[in-house]
Amino acid sequence: MMQVVALDQATGIMPAEISFQSVRAVTQEGTEDSHLVFLDGALMALLVPAETGWFLQFSLGFREQEGVIFTTLAMAENWIRDRTSSVVAL
């Protein structure tokens, strides 16, 4: 599992931890290498391969969305971080 944690340089606040876990996901064509996305250890999304990168199959919680395409996992992480910067874990 890849973990990404970085101190926000502007605020000095430790942001939420975003991690990716490689999994196999069932598709119409069989199975594909995919990534579960976790936010502070809680399942948040599933990314599956697309011709141009990674497709957001689903996301959970207050930012539910689907159908977004990212060219890299780093871009997906940045998108998630932008949408969770105001979240406070309880």
Describe the model.
- With 90 residues, the protein is mostly beta strands.
- It has one domain (2-84).
- The chain is built from one helix and six strands; from the N terminus they run E-E-E-E-E-E-H.
- It has one helix at residues 73-84; strands at 2-4, 18-27, 30-39, 42-50, 53-59, 69-70.
- The chain has a six-stranded antiparallel sheet with strand order 1-2-3-4-5-6, covered by helices on one side.
- Strand 4 (42-50) and strand 5 (53-59) form a beta hairpin.
- The model is unreliable at 3-7 (pLDDT under 50).
Query: What percent strand?
Result: over 45%
The total of beta strands comes to 6
Major sheet characteristics: 6 strands, antiparallel
Determine the N-to-C terminus distance.
23 Å
> Portion of residues in helices?
10-25%
> What count of structural domains?
1
Mean pLDDT: 80
Give the SSE order as H and E letters: EEEEEEH
C-alpha-based Rg, rounded: 13 Å
Q: DSSP helix count?
A: 1
The structural class is mainly beta
Strand order of the largest sheet: 1-2-3-4-5-6
- Contiguous low-pLDDT stretches (5 residues minimum) are 3-7
Give the helices and strands, then pairings.
Blueprint: E1 2-4, E2 18-27, E3 30-39, E4 42-50, E5 53-59, E6 69-70, H1 73-84
Antiparallel strand pairs: 1-2, 2-3, 3-4, 4-5, 5-6
Features:
mainly beta, disordered N terminus, six-stranded antiparallel beta sheet, 1 helix, single chain, 90 residues
Summed up, what is this model?
By secondary structure, the protein is mainly beta.
